[in-house]
Amino acid sequence: MRAVIVAIGVAFLISLLTTPIAIKVFTRLKAGQPIRSIGLASNQGKKGTPTMGGVVFIIATVIAYVAGHLALTTLPDQQIAQVEPTITALVLLGLMVFSGAVGFVDDFVKVRKRNSGGISARAKLIGQILVGAVFGVVALYFPSSMTDASGAITNVETVGSTTLSFIRDIPALEVGKVASVVIFIFVVMAATNGVNLTDGLDGLATGASVMVLAAYALIAFWQYRHWCADPNYTEDYCYTVRDPLEIALIAGAAAGACVGFLWWNTSPARIFMGDTGALGLGGLIAGMAMSTRTVLLLPIIGGLFVIITMSVVIQIISFKTTGKRVFRMSPLQHHFELAGWSEVNIVVRFWIIAGIGVAIALGLFYSEFLANVG
Question: What pTM was computed for the model?
Answer without folding.
Answer: 0.93
